[in-house]
Design goal:
Layout: H1 4-22, E1 36-40, H2 41-44, H3 58-79, E2 84-89, H4 95-100, H5 106-111, H6 115-135, E3 139-143, H7 148-156, E4 163-166, E5 182-184, E6 189-190, H8 209-216, H9 231-239, H10 242-247
Parallel strand pairs: 1-2, 1-4, 2-3, 4-5
Antiparallel strand pairs: 5-6
Helix pairs in contact: 1-3, 3-6, 8-9
Length: 268
């Protein structure tokens, strides 16, 4: 078991990660500029499932969740009067993507099967957010049947309002292929006008972002892509062969094209 001091530090660290996931720290803007805020809770809350049950007592886990939920509520109350907020969560298997690529998010999804932690998250975090949504009409808590990106994709295409998605998942960048939204990744805001300025993001046309990740892979989601194709090599391949990428005639795509629906969300 961890000592009380160690637990306190763990709680402080995990709460800080959640806080930073919701708070721009570099002066790049804030969420009041947007009409609709869409929160990917699976991404934001993933750190809560990195808990070794042996080291934490039930009371300590509950204390962590109560601290986290206060951070969420503080964020929601800050923006609730001026923004429409939708909280998306699944915290379970992503059946569609796993049917295409069985190892998709394998480790993260396996952690969701820790029912002790999942039940505490449901009881304390999700239930509190649902209660708040019953009192505040601007907040909707939406339980997704599959990966939150699928519901966010559908919902963003049904609005003409200014949308920001809060998610640390790089997979969300594929949404820029379909609509000029903003994404806050826990560090900064990105959209069609600036994503290519970030060193870890693709330097290809926004319509080809799905192809980029299909080729280069997404380490966070345990999708390997083409062997030996890092950022520079993938950027070069796509930028020099745009027409063949669009027509799906590029030979290099042959081995990964069967996974394209994970990234080309309009094809699902």
């Amino acid at each position: 078991m961890l000592t009380e001091e160690e637990i306190s530090k763990e709680i402080e660290w995990r709460n800080d990660v959640i806080y930073k996931s919701l708070t721009p720290y570099d002066g790049s803007g804030h969420f009041l500029d947007y009409d609709e805020i869409k929160m990917d809770m699976d991404s934001i809350c993933s750190i809560l499932f990195h808990i070794d049950s042996v080291d934490w007592s039930p009371e300590q886990k509950t204390e962590l969740m109560k601290t986290i939920v206060q951070t969420f509520i503080q964020f929601l109350l800050t923006y609730i009067e001026n923004n429409s907020i939708t909280v998306y969560y699944n915290l379970d298997d992503y059946k569609i993507f796993k049917s295409i690529y069985p190892d998709w998010c394998k480790e993260r999804l396996s952690r969701y099967h820790n029912m002790e932690i999942r039940n505490i998250v449901d009881k304390i975090v999700i239930s509190k957010l649902k209660k708040l949504s019953e009192m505040k009409h601007n907040i909707t808590v939406k339980q997704c049947e599959d990966s939150p990106i699928l519901d966010i994709y559908k919902d963003m295409n049904n609005t003409n309002k200014k949308v920001v998605v809060i998610s640390r998942d790089p997979h969300m960048l594929c949404l820029l292929a379909y609509k000029d939204i903003s994404i806050f990744n826990g560090r900064y805001f990105v959209d069609r006008n600036n994503y290519f300025m970030e060193k870890e993001y693709p330097s290809v046309h926004h319509a080809l972002i799905p192809a980029y990740f299909m080729i280069s892979g997404i380490k966070r989601n345990e999708y390997s892509g083409l062997p030996k194709y890092g950022k520079k090599k993938t950027d070069k391949l796509i930028n020099e062969n745009k027409i063949d990428v669009i027509k799906q005639t590029l030979p290099e795509l042959e081995s990964v094209n069967k996974y394209r629906k994970i990234f080309y969300l309009n094809e699902l």
